[in-house]
Amino acid sequence: MEDSSTLRLLSVFLTLELLSLSNGTDSAKLECPIRITPDTMVMQYKSETQNATCTPTSDSVPNVDKIFWQGLQGKGTDNTVWFVDTHKDWNERPVCYANFQGIETCHKTLNFILYKTPDSVRIQHLDNSSSVVENGELQLQCDVINVAPAQNLRIHWYRGNETLKTGPMQMTRCWTDNDTNCNISMIRSPVNVSFTVSITLNRNHSGADFRCEAQLDLGPGGPDPPPNMMSSPLSITVFYKPTINTTKLPKTIPVFRGYPEELVCEADGHPPPTIQWLYSSDKAPHELEGKLTVSEAGLYNCTATNDVDSTVHVVVVILKEDYLPLIAGFVAVTVVAISIVFLFIYSIYYKNTKMRRYSLKNPKLSTHDGNVAHNGWDLPLPMTKLS
Length: 387
Ligand SMILES: *[C@@H]1O[C@H](CO)[C@@H](O)[C@H](O)[C@H]1NC(C)=O
Ligand SMILES: *[C@@H]1O[C@H](CO)[C@@H](O)[C@H](O)[C@H]1NC(C)=O
Ligand SMILES: *[C@@H]1O[C@H](CO)[C@@H](O)[C@H](O)[C@H]1NC(C)=O
Ligand SMILES: *[C@@H]1O[C@H](CO)[C@@H](O)[C@H](O)[C@H]1NC(C)=O
Ligand SMILES: *[C@@H]1O[C@H](CO)[C@@H](O)[C@H](O)[C@H]1NC(C)=O
Ligand SMILES: *[C@@H]1O[C@H](CO)[C@@H](O)[C@H](O)[C@H]1NC(C)=O
Ligand SMILES: *[C@@H]1O[C@H](CO)[C@@H](O)[C@H](O)[C@H]1NC(C)=O
Ligand SMILES: *[C@@H]1O[C@H](CO)[C@@H](O)[C@H](O)[C@H]1NC(C)=O
Ligand SMILES: *[C@@H]1O[C@H](CO)[C@@H](O)[C@H](O)[C@H]1NC(C)=O
Hints:
About 20% of the residues lie in helices and about 40% in strands. It is α+β, with helices and mostly antiparallel strands. It has 4 domains: about 1-115, Sandwich (Immunoglobulin-like); about 120-235, Immunoglobulins (Immunoglobulin-like, Sandwich); about 240-320, Immunoglobulin-like (Sandwich); about 355-385, no CATH class. Keywords: Membrane, Signal, Transmembrane, Transmembrane helix.
């Protein structure tokens, strides 16, 4: 029994030496034969306290001289059990050290995070206005109040229910009651932080609701799903210049003499545009609610104007003769002409039939044979006979 334990001790010793050689001089990088239970502690602010225990790994470990926690502000003790104070242990970086007989001191770090979900998450437009002009830049700011640790924050932006794809996260400001410009990669206690994003909007986004969401990404050992908080929505109106509907108002419009045409000028824009028709003063069209009734050739300009811009659409009205009566007249003349031709043909035919009757009477008289006369009626009449 004694022999085997001595052997085991020797083997552990050798392993440590070898690791030490291959790894260079830093013994901190060795697999230190101690165990921290649990090895990860992700604790919520003001949650129930827990302890972390540091012990030598099983029985295969050489004689321990000393094992203790360090990196605990004012609490560096020989105690192998550490109780976290979830009210204020923001800056603790607990490290367990161990001295073994004949080996250098080695240590392990407890993966510890004390986190606090935000008191609030607010979204605002940097201009403080609730509107933006189309294709203009919209700068939104997301303020996350009283959150820790700020470097684990992930911000998501939403337009309606759709996620906005943004570039790398842009943290613009970090502040506390004491420090107006803190460094979030250094500070682990609760801070206020602001993030901004720049987006361009088009008319389709008018009235869109924007929201930002702060998520604490605490890694493995953290709560699943990660804690997150959504801001209330911010509604943004997009102003855009008028667009005249050219489907309803083509560039060129023919007007038949005597038949006035209605020109409909409709424009889409925000704020809703006002419609104005411009035409030379000698024209006298009738105008009503954006609709212009024209009967004269010329240029008619529809102008749609709103606060953003104005758009002009020029309509060329060309006068056309009304060919309908002409066509009708032509058709009537043709019909009359055809009728006359038919009458003429008929009259000729009628005359000839009469003549044939006369020519048939003669043979009837000469032969005195009713049958011959009957046959004569049945035969197709040879035209030569008639002429
Ligand atoms: C440490 O916590 C564990 C459970 O988390 C518990 O079983 C153990 O009793 C605690 N140790 C001390 C010394 O309170
Ligand atoms: C926006 O409003 C905040 C307070 O509500 C004010 O501090 C800030 O100066 C305003 N910004 C602009 C650009 O008006
Ligand atoms: C967003 O909401 C609209 C209706 O409000 C719905 O049609 C659409 O599928 C939703 N999109 C997502 C990604 O949820
Ligand atoms: C965050 O800002 C609010 C005011 O907006 C302030 O009352 C609070 O003390 C700040 N919190 C921290 C941790 O600085
Ligand atoms: C802010 O300063 C006060 C005293 O000036 C101090 O008590 C407090 O701990 C400080 N807070 C932080 C977060 O540094
Ligand atoms: C914040 O701290 C990190 C780590 O010390 C440092 O690299 C970085 O330059 C600091 N940033 C600022 C803005 O001071
Ligand atoms: C707005 O949406 C319509 C239909 O979804 C699309 O055809 C049009 O191109 C969009 N306009 C802009 C400026 O993106
Ligand atoms: C233009 O008018 C036509 C006909 O009424 C309509 O179908 C179309 O949707 C309109 N286009 C726009 C952009 O409003
Ligand atoms: C209408 O617009 C055309 C082209 O912009 C311009 O030449 C013409 O003078 C305008 N007519 C009126 C009456 O404004």
